[in-house]
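Exercise 7.
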Amino acid sequence: MKQHSSRFLTLIEHVKPLITEITPQELKARLDNEKPFFLIDVREDDELASGRIPTAIHLSKGIIERDIEKQITDPETPIVVYCSGGFRCALVAENLQRMGFKQVASLNTGLQGWINAGYTLE
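Solution. The predicted structure, written as tokens, is:
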């Protein structure tokens, strides 16, 4: 498991009450429901070799705020973001909300929680 600095964890604690988080089971239900939404993998390029959640597009945390509007122009579009463990995607979710996106959710356990729940990767 990664070691996170205390200041980073404090930042995450501050951000999480400001965002919507969903579980892997809720994400699976959304995927199965087939209602349109964007699923965005915000991990860095070197993390992608481990696989991704089916249908996800990649916009890393380092560029998502800059490039999101090239992919999603309507701020009402539902978005779910995920990273490896659920921390970086919380920060991304908060930033996207601050940019005016209204239906943003963060996968609370990240990709690891998806895997632990027994769901597949592509």
